[in-house]
Design brief:
The protein is α/β, with parallel strands linked by helices. Helices cover 40% and strands 12% of the residues. The N and C termini lie far apart (94 Å). It binds oxidized coenzyme A (CAO).
Amino acid sequence: MAKKKQKVSKRTKAKAASRKSVRKVVKLAVARKAKSKSNGKSNGLPRPSIKAYGQDGKALTGVRILDFTHVQSGPTCTQLLAWMGADVIKVERPGVGDITRGQLVDVKGADSLYFTMLNHNKRSITIDSKHPQGKRVLDELIKACDVLVENFAPGALDRMGLTWEHIHKLNPRMIVASVKGFGPGPYEDCKVYENVAQCAGGSASTTGFREGPPLVTGAQIGDSGTGLHLALGIMAALYQRNRTGRGQKVLCAMQDGVLNLARVKLRDQQRLAHGPLTEYSQYGEGVPFGVAVPRAGNDSGGGQPGWIVKCKGWENDPDAYLYFITQAPVWNEICDVIGEPTWKNDPDYATPKARLPRLKQIFARIEQFTMTMTKFEAMDLFNKHDIPCGPILSMKEIAEEQSLRATGTVVEVDHPTRGKYLTVGNPIKLSDSPADVRRSPLLGEHTEEILSKVLGYSASQINEIKASGAITAPDKSKAAA
Ligand code: CAO
């Protein structure tokens, strides 16, 4: 009897095993079929969405950012991530907030444009990160977020107790992204602002006119430039996390970011060892080069010489100028348009090399011509002949430019305390993830919403946290009494 039972169970087992292997074969066949349907390029990704473009969420839908940034560099980064669909939770000090809320104020009692223009599409929660109860709330937020972004002074995050070790113990998937002024080295402990980075990153030394002092540029290459670099690093870390399951540190030093944007100047530094930089005006002017890359005025940074020339009205309008490029392939057209047809075959002008020592004189002739027309007329005329050039646009002209409004690059936003204002929208256009620009949050506007909806705290727990003083500013009247 026992033997019979044994035999039956052996048979049942064998049958089950064969059923299992049949199932396996069927599964493999299905997988193979699916693979062949997609041209053998099965990569484990979902099938293409059938929803209309722009209707299937945003690029970063589902990514939650714990935004500890302030001033400009960090907020630039998190604003970009927010425009791409991330849920950005900006943590601010109770009663104080990001210092820029109150800097360069134009409308009394309202958040400044400095703040509003860098913090769109975010939510604001106020937490005192040094208060024990505040620390507990932050720990919960760390568990609920994918990325922590910060640009505090060196060491400040650690002083809050938010070390890499602490964060990673709570959430091993967390990406911790930081902007600092300098990378590891002699200056790593220094606080840094925009212009310090422009100076330390090689931009200031190579900007301006040869005869003048170093110059900083209006474009915020130290702050916003580094914020852009950081956003790219975060994207890459998120992508890598899909494979590894773990977070990592992302560090962008402002000095490095500026140097990256000024890399053509490090190129020129090395070219100096092989002779003068012939495309710099000073070569044509016979001024010897020193040991370092000089300031190049308005010389173009590439192999096609360019300069800024005056246009009609320059005497009264500081922006009546045009950037003109003597691009070699259209040299004949340039000669014809400006009325110097003989230059086409003149050995002193016919080749780019022959022109290099004569650039000052060539641009003076071009300027004589452009001074007879407005910058916009000049732009129209030269572009008809494929000659590259660009009008110097003032911020007023840019603000009024309708084509920038049409693309969402310049956007009008309404704000409850300051009213309507213009801002720069997302300059990165994604066809399946269009950015809508929503106003910046008021200080602590979403504190309760985040505590209840993100962290799941009950009303009584929220009241308890409030009473502890961890999320509200101390009552000044009580303190004075
Ligand atoms: N609760 C409690 N304390 C908070 C807080 C919160 N929610 N948020 C910030 N703080 C505290 C910090 O912990 C820090 O305190 P400690 O010095 O005691 O540790 C303090 O606020 C000030 O932070 P900070 O030193 O970063 O700010 P700062 O105004 O002195 O310096 C800046 C500003 C920009 C120079 C500095 O943050 C910095 O060098 N950042 C890195 C580089 C950078 O991004 N620069 C570009 C800025 S944009 O131009």
